[in-house]
Amino acid sequence: MTVLLIEAFYGGSHKQLVDLLQEEMQESVLFTLPAKKWHWRARTAALYFAQNVPVNPNYRILFASSVLNLTELVALRPDFGKLKKVLYFHENQLTYPVKKCQERDFQYGYNQILSCLVADVVVFNSAYNMESFLTSIGKFMKLMPDHRPKDLEKIIRPKCQVLYFPVKFSNISREHDKDPESFFKVLLKMKEMELSFHVSVLGETFTDVPDIFAEAKKALGLSVLHWGYLPSKDEYFQVLCMADVVISTAKHEFFGVAMIEAVYCGCYPLCPKALVYPEIFPAEYLYSTPEQLFKRLQNFCKKPDIVRKHLYKGELARFSWAALRGKFRSLLTTEPKEDL
Fold first, then answer.
1. Which domain holds residue 75?
2. What is the per-residue pLDDT across 27-69, written as a single tens digit (0 to 9) for each?
3. pLDDT, tens digit, for every residue of 73-95?
4. Angle at 337 between CA 164 and CA 23, to 5 degrees
5. Domain match, 216 and 280 both
6. Cα(314)–Cα(260) distance, rounded to whole angstroms?
7. C-alpha to C-alpha distance for 88 and 14, rounded to whole angstroms
8. In 10 A of CB 75, how many CB atoms?
């Protein structure tokens, strides 16, 4: 039996997952496209893979992330139609935030819905990701002017399950912050009050960097310990281990690998009481407003032992590759229904 792994956006958590799966499944082959120009990957990757994945009668299971338009791939490659098709959602385009509803490209979410209809198993990295997607289908389809398909949630839901993204704690990944304005606003307020703290801002540098990054770096001055991309995972790991607190000000998050890794390194997490975070972290580590975040950090600056002697009260083991390995293996070893 051969497992066909396809990743249209081979970077970050997408890369981590398929690399783990290929390592685990000896009889597997991996085909990828670089993690660049996400929108074009979503639009065109199916045709690329249809032309570049060789025909192999030994294929039994197809695993792909939801960046790929699975419907187009199966239509272009009828030999894939009989395979057990597993679609994994790292994120979903029905609830991915945009500034204005008019700016949301209907096609991306629509393609994900179509891919779910074609898939045999639809897997989400969190319950939040799954429920936000399924419960948004009805409203999303109302964007169509007429002749709207019916009962799509009812058709797709029975295929769905939650399987957390497996964090291999010996490895470290990077994840850019989702709302730098809120994050830096709190830090600059702390700086104005002459509170004693140091900050490390880690992550890859993308083409469009908000102005607030340069402004905040200058304003924070000597409070900055590390800034920007660290080329080595070991270096990244070391910086996390030096930190006392890890902060998320995300406006969207479907899992949050970087936060879990930071907590594993000993950081005290502070996350919004929203999105996936209540599913991942106990209530003690959640805040509702920027003011609450500021007050927590202010208190930590004055009494650093609160976090330095704190023992994390949540459970990290359930997100480990060791805990999830068997479930992923089972997902990729079940034979398809059809007789091939």
1. 2-166+321-331
2. 999 999 999 999 999 999 999 999 999 999 999 999 999 999 9
3. 999 999 999 999 999 999 999 98
4. 40
5. yes
6. 10
7. 10
8. 14
